Automatic annotation (TrEMBL):
Transmembrane regions: none
Protein source organism: Paraburkholderia kururiensis
Protein name: MarR family transcriptional regulator
HTH marR-type domain ranges (all copies): 21-152
A Pfam family that the UniProt record links to this protein: MarR
PROSITE patterns, per database record: HTH_MARR_2
InterPro entries: HTH_MarR-typ (IPR000835), MarR/SlyA-like (IPR039422), WH-like_DNA-bd_sf (IPR036388), WH_DNA-bd_sf (IPR036390)
Length: 152
């Protein structure tokens, strides 16, 4: 039987610095939190968070969306999606309906109030996005999007 490799009792501080500088997950989380704060602030006049805006936008489609499809698009489990839908449903921005073809499934759709709120919030989202992209050289943001999609 092979001997187990002896683990160090602690890591040197240089390792911490290396992880701080190299960890993709850390840098993605920091960037995501910062972007979330920026969009949360921009969408505050509409009483929306960036997550709620994304959820409403994911429902802006010709036919009601299957809950599983929205969960997949937003990279959420169904329990998290259900919790995220509750305040939007209370505000009568979203309706959750039984799927007519499958009684176990749910369909999600925007209400007219949800459509109107999304239409009013979109120009603010668009302007905020433009401001965020401004410092980047031409093509860099599209390249970043491609890389992010490959990781998701």
């Amino acid at each position: 039987m092979a001997r187990a490799k002896k683990l160090p009792k602690s890591l040197p501080f240089e390792t911490t610095l290396m992880v701080r500088d190299c960890c993709l997950c850390l840098h993605m989380q920091r960037a995501a939190r910062n972007l979330a704060r920026i969009f949360d602030e921009a969408l505050r006049p509409f009483d929306l968070t960036n997550g709620q805006f994304s959820l409403l936008m994911s429902l802006n489609r010709p036919q009601p969306a299957a809950m599983k499809d929205v969960a997949s698009l937003l990279a959420m489990d169904r329990t998290t999606l259900t919790a995220a839908l509750k305040p939007l449903e209370r505000r009568e921005l979203v309706v959750i309906e039984q799927d007519p073809n499958d009684g176990r499934s749910r369909r999600l759709r925007l209400t007219p109030a949800g459509e109107q709120l999304l239409a009013r919030a979109f120009p603010v989202w668009q302007q905020t996005h433009t401001e965020i992209e401004r410092p980047f050289a031409q093509g860099e943001v599209d390249r970043l999007r491609r890389h992010l999609r490959s990781l998701s």
